[in-house]
Every structure is written in structure tokens, then in C-alpha cells.
Protein: DNA (cytosine-5-)-methyltransferase
Amino acid sequence: MLILDLFAGPGGWSRALHVLGLRDVGLEWDEWVCKTRAAAGQLTVRTDVARYPTWPFVGRTRGLIASPPCQAWSMAGKRLGLLDQPLVHAAVEDLSAGRDTRERLLAACRDERSLLAAEPMRYLHALNTVGEPEWVALEEVPDVLPLWKQYAAILRRWGFSVWCGVLNAADFGVPQTRRRAILLASRVRTAQPPTPTHCQVVEAESLFGPGRARWVSMAEALGWGATERPVPTVCAGGGPGGGPEPFPSGSRKTLSDARERGTWAPRPGGAVWQSRGEGAGWAARYGTRGNRAADAPALTHTAQAHRWSWSLRSNNQANATVRPVSEPAGTLFFGHRANECTWVAEPAPAPTKDTGTSAVPEPIRIAAREASLLQTFPGTYPWAGNKSQQFSQIGNAVPPLLAGHLLAPHLGVTLNPDDFTLAA
Structure:
């Protein structure tokens, strides 16, 4: 008996199943996504889900997972799926009765991707003829919730227990307030949402529950430390969290690249400045790099010793979410130039009287590894393709930690969040 993963993507669900001790068979069309899955050791059939026959899976499917493409519905796109929604509802109703009207309905859609949200019903109808699958897990952007409610009504007629609603990934330890419409259904257990493990403000254990930890911050997830500070800061020559990791002023490189440079040459002039918080660790870490003796004292020119607070801006649009590193990220989505995700810095009050100001660093692109970690993939995950292709995959993926919380009850296993500890 297999677990079928429709629109499998780069492996969010697959990664969760691997941690839980199982594997899925993924159907996926995108070339670079398939290469990522192959590098990660995941079973994949490269195909168009809308054209692939259902009969190979009938009589052998235990669970069905589906995360249809969200571009037609997402706030990051034109959202033509909302206009096509009546057509998608019609397709779902027809497919649930074994009537394939997709070609006619597709011709009327404003976005041809809209109808992909009806594809899971084609597979579910075929599998239901033999009493399969045992369980179902569907995921999409919040605007698809009315469609999931239609699925729920149909699945209940077929004997499933069903729950559907919107969950916030941050409530399950993901360092990102990513909200998604979820449907969970089962023939053998009562379907219900997983119990949240985190919340915005710490909840102590009480008679009413086990308590919940504070949302995981970006700083904590990325290993930048100083999560106990209200707003982790960086000095000239220092990195997020106030440590000695340096960054280049005005660089368009990633913050991860900047942290590996070892020095910051501020404008104007060519002198190299040392963070006041570096201490003796600078020499051990960076030697004599940066045109300054490793054992030289820190420079004390307060005009260049400004402190900066780092935040992550989710895109280039006017309504972009901007969060300090002491909080979870907003929803990460890529795939369009306007959706470039960047680190931005703002001056914090200087600790001593300042005689001048230094330029605020320009926005720095988020690195693929950083975005991967904020999605709870390992830092070593083998993303394939160029930067644009990698970011598109990361933004469209289901966070594996959230997927693990959703799948564990269906599989009859206990989820240990420590098993999702992110690799360096």
C-alpha cells in the first residue's frame, strides 16, 4: 500500500514522511522540482497530474496527499482563481459523480491553473470505488477553503470523518506565520486538527492544557542567537544578534555571503571597523583579515559605530510584511520579481552620543539556504536549478514540520519535533 502525493513539489510532504519513517510516490511536472526530489532520494513520476491515469493506484493506495498549485489563488499573483471558483466547484461536483467535464470548463477559465484544484477529486472518485484511500490530506492557500468544504461534504457522503479549516504554521513550530487551508479526512479515525505546540505569547502549563512555547523566531531558526533580546541588533562589522559576524554595507549579495566576508569596509573611506562586541574572539575567528591587526583594539569612532536592527521584508510591494528577526517571518512566496525577499536594516538608537551618521545598508537578498531553513527544510537540502528556480520551489513547498504534524495521526506515529532539527 502506497501514499500518493499529487503535485508533490520539492518534497515538503515527502520530507515529513521520511522523518516519520515512510515514503510517498510523488506526481510532479516541473523539471527542476523533479531534479530536487531525485537528489533528495524521493520517488517521483514526472507527469502532468491532470493527464495521468488513475488506474495504476486503484487497489494499492493507503493515503492521498495533494497540494495543488496555488498561483491562481495566491495573493502573490493575479488571483484569477477566485473568478474561476464557480467553474472549479462545478468540476469537483462532476468528477465526484464520475463525469469528466474538465475540457469544457477549462475553456471558460480565466487561469488554466484554477482547475487543477479539482484534480484530487478525480483520483479520489477512482479510489473510492474500492474503498480507498484510508486517509486524505489536502493543503492550499486560505482562499481555497470554500472548495475544501465542498470536498468535505462529498467525502462525508463516502463515509469519511472530515475536518477542514485554516492553520497558522507558526503555531506548530515553523518560524513563519504561513496560513494555509487544510483538509484532513479518515475512514478509520475521527479527523481533527493537530494540537498547536506554539503561540505568539508563551502559555504556561495548566489544568486546561500542556502549555505552548513562544513562536520560533527567525533568529532562532537561522542560528543567529540572541533570541532573548527584544530586537537583536548588529554593530558596524557585526552580524544579526549582535555577534561578530560581519556584513558589507550596500551589498546586493546575500546576508549569508556577507557573514562569511570577515570585514566591513564602510563608506566613506577604506578603514575597517570592528564591532564593539567582538572582544578577543575576533582574532581567533578571522586572523589578520581586513587590513587590521587581529589584536588591535576596536575603533571608537562613534560616527561609524551605529547599531542596526535587521528585519525581513517579504516582497517589494507597498503592503509587504516586515518582521524583525526576533519574530517569525511572514509568508515566504517567490516566483515573481516583485516577490523578492530581502533583509532590511534600520538605525537603532546609538548607545553613546554620536557625532554623525553612517549610511544605512541597502537591502540584502535572502539566501536560498536561509529561506529553506525558514520553511523547516534542512540547510543542506539539495535544491536544484538556478537561484530563481530554487526560490520558486522553496516558496511553493509545504513546510515539512507542519506536514509532519498533519500526517502523524493518520500514520499512527508520535511526532517528535526534535527529529526535524535543521541541519547546518
